[in-house]
Amino acid sequence: xxxxxxxxxxxxxxxxxxxxxxxxxxxxxxxxxxxxxxxxxxxxxxxxxxxxxxxxxxxxxxxxxxxxxxxxxxxxxxxxxxxxxxxxxxxxxxxxxxxxxxxxxxxxxxxxxxxxxxxxxxxxxxxxxxxxxxxxxxxxxxxxxxxxxxxxxxxxxxxxxxxxxxxxxxxxxxxxxxxxxxxxxxxxxxxxxxxxxxxxxxxxxxxxxxxxxxxxxxxxxxxxxxxxxxxxxxxxxxxxxxxxxxxxxxxxxxxxxxxxxxxxxxxxxxxxxxxxxxxxxxxxxxxxxxxxxxxxxxxxxxxxxxxxxxxxxxxxxxxxxxxxxxxxxxxxxxxxxxxxxxxxxxxxxxxxxxxxxxxxxxxxxxxxxxxxxxxxxxxxxxxxxxxxxxxxxxxxxxxxxxxxxxxxxxxxxxxxxxxxxxxxxxxxxxxxxxxxxxxxxxxxxxxxxxxxxxxxxxxxxxxxxxxxxxxxxxxxxxxxxxxxxxxxxxxxxxxxxxxxxxxxxxxxxxxxxxxxxxxxxxxxxxxxxxxxxxxxxxxxxxxxxxxxxxxxxxxxxxxxxxxxxxxxxxxxxxxxxxxxxxxxxxxxxxxxxxxxxxxxxxxxxxxxxxxxxxxxxxxxx
Length: 621
Ligand code: BES
Ligand code: ZN
Prior knowledge:
The chain is α+β, with helices and mostly antiparallel strands and 621 residues long. It has 23 helices and 22 strands. The structure holds ligand BES and zinc ion. Zinc ion (ZN) binds next to helix 5. Zinc ion is lined by residues 292, 296, 315, 318.
């Protein structure tokens, strides 16, 4: 049984209601959904229909769907024209689409809606690549599906999907491809998925098989580099995950390298993860993002958060699994030192993230979206990721370590497969799994659920193993001591050239080099020492790894090295990943407001609409 503090909060009906939808989703089961659409690159619109086969779970007098900046042309219910109304917009949820229709419980309805997207749609980015060739991609999580098609836009509702998509370019979709003929592309998603996991992209896309169940899709100039970067890890990651969790149910794990304006590192669209080209680092150092998106095949895409208030059930679980996957060595054993290293890095992100949140309240693990008033895009941060994965890591430790916790992982993903759940159901499943073990139940009873789940701010810090961090911080301490002492670049250079320092630095792994820069950033630099250190670690300054590049810009701007401001402005014209773009504009804004605003005005059409909106807010425009 749940502890009293949680019973008090638990709703009568599970899972909890999703208030970030205007639809009457609780009245239906969606048996099947079918797209028949055309991508129109002349008008930058999607035109066509969505057909729903619904089963009523209550007596109803209307069907209400979500919509946002889409036009509805006509609606048929059971093949007969039906009236409809688009209600006025309520921010941030959009416009309810009301379809009056009376029927009793347990009836099947066929609902056919002809619609088209508009220029304002936040779900789509239409663009031209560097060769002036058209391209379009969708990004629907969390609540942008309603801006692509009228739907029950809630992660609580899942449906099988079929799709016929007409386009002058090759198309990918979040399902398995069926035969395509000419400009008609067909897909099938046999596993029920929520609307936020629908994905479409089309452009000059080619593909290459990189594993027994994996194909990589990209524009031609990106394909070979992408293959080299990812081919060695993908199948290996799938097998590690299957051992750790449950069998992979989606048949294929394919992914698409999107153009640079893609606003996220990756998006776990079933059968076709979308990723940013900035993952291509030429040293495989960002394959953890692939491990992350792959892990969503279990946490998120199979067991799904029932609303965005429980978003950490998607992302916290995924980071937890991702770190187990990337810490598993060739012998199948977990490199715990490396796993701890990743958690320490994540902890530093969590501190930064909590400090830069628009509202301190957003640092709760279970969010309060105020019955739909708060836009889940506005509460997005590292909190669900890092506080969420730390929550699981602490539970694992308290319950006796990984060997004791692993059977629960399998149990959880089996128990809730293909469903959408809330936090209470998750905790209840822990109690259920350990019910025969009094000691473990006592541990669960003593766990401070309230602190972890409902209290803002940093959670208690785990005493992580610091071996891999110490190797880096020892070198950083040496530098720290020399900053006030050395007054010329030569002095720094000579010091660095001492054999043992070079050896230590060269032994660093890519994640350690990233930490190295993070720790250097935290020191107090003089003008001569800051420029010296950049010139000394030339390999970092010239790195093609965007994680390193971004941190170097951060170092340069925080130390007011004005000669690099324009370089950052130039770089901002080439990347759209929000993880870099938003903090970069904030940094630039702090040192040179005029340049920040000018740069943003110049690039705003390049960025994705979601990114443009958020940067605008960040810059106070
Ligand atoms: N599902 C997220 C991306 C997302 C979250 C899109 C919320 C829209 C709203 C994806 O799995 C993700 O977490 N991507 C991370 C990568 C990662 C390794 C933490 C990213 O984009 O940086
Ligand atoms: Zn994720």
